[in-house]
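Attaching the record inline, Q. Sequence:
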Amino acid sequence: MFSVQTLWCVFAVVVGAALSRAQIPSHAVLLNPTASLNEIKIARSGDGLHVVGITPSPYPFFIHYAGSTDGGRTWPMREVPLAYAYALGDLVAEGPHVHVAVSTRWAGPFVISSNDGGTTWAPGVRVSQESNVLAVSAPILRKNGPVLNVVWVENRGDNNIYTNRSIDHGVTWMAHDQNLSAGLPSGTDFGPTVVALGGELHVFWGRVSPTVQTLYQRSLDGGATWLPAPQVLALAPVVLAVGDLHNLVVSNASGAMLRSDDSGLSWTPVTGHGITHVVDLAMCGAQVLLVGRQGNAFPIDVQLQVSDDAGATWLSVPYIVPQWRNATITARATADASFVHFAFANDSSPLPGCVIQSDDSGGSWRLVAGDAGAGISTSVDGALVLAKPVNRPDVWAWVLEGHTTFGRGSPGTGGLEPSLAGGDLAGLSRTFRLTVGNARGGSLGGLFTSFTPLADVPFGAARLYVVDPIVTTPFLTNGVQGAPAGGSADVYVAVPADPALAGFPLRSQAFVIDPAVADGYAATAAVESWIR
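Structure, as predicted:
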């Protein structure tokens, strides 16, 4: 660990401090050069970012894929054709494994898989055993290690919620899918939502039989076995469900909520949030972010509510955001920040959307992007946004807040390259972490930081990416002295509250003294930390 440094020492030498923010920033990448895309999904695993969308016409629609391997800096894979489909379901990613769930009108749900980070794709695998499919909802897909589970609605008799499971990253599926509403009286099932907590699967859906009710099923072993019969929750019907650890929170549209802190064994009514029309829910750990309105008519101010104890208690009053035109609103929660994304209608002007962020559990919020209208993906160390300009089909992607990698390092002891990675959100008034890893143990090093655009020049056996003006921060790797790849070090960077820093990337590269190589040092790749 190393002491906190501040960006002021770098920022003070930058000419032209104020950055005028364009609607589409210069580091954005166009994901769809030729085809219009709708229903865009985003998934992230480490530096791998994945996006899929569906063409709006003509039918049958087509699924296109775009992929980045450097945290969103570049997108070498764009408009990769995956399949014709009737509906686009979920996109999930874990390590090199990327999976897309789609449905077709006459053959039901399929899962399309890549096991090399999106570079190549296997043909879609059908997961339904029905021979005469009439209509299928967009499939819900969840992943935990090699286990994949798909849940969908299919017209196959009276009870229509089905699931299937793969234990080999989607290569093969169970010979028989399972009806989750089997054994119930005749009814119409609709609107499933699935919460996956590691190996636990919690499925909620609505049913008309003849009155409307909410049903609940769960598996605690990755979909291998389920409850003997669904449970009826006193909520009609569930529209949103979230969870983390062993906590679950479910809500209907009018703000009636239930919570469980024992993986669904027991349920308790949630009170005190004061929201009468729920728009979205998000959860991370024990923090729940609730977005709602006072009613369903428009325009009505948006209300943001936060609980830090899994829904047991809430802020005394919601945070109010004036809503001046209609929007699709999405909640996102991370370990130490919350986001709300507004995507306005395509005929709205002048902006297609915006993102606001809270760093204090919902007590206050700040605008971090007024130019993002297509989607958002957040993690503990970054936020990727997509923009779809008004009345245009193009979709642009860029890192709003977080870290991307550039170039490569040079080998040190044992022929191993040290690494540099950004951690935590690089936001105003926040402190983020740059971690040197895989380095020679017990060795001195220096972290070079600058606002100057990245270069790429020879520097002995390495490449130098960060150039003047440079601030150098020394560090000492931990671990056994001289051990190959046995050392690491953290350098913490404090970002001032100055709004003039918003939109700037801080460029960083580390060098570690290493007498085992000819130059006497080993270098990392560079990292750009995008500040908001």
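The chain has one helix and 43 strands. The CA atoms of residues 448 and 472 lie 5 Å apart.

More tomorrow.
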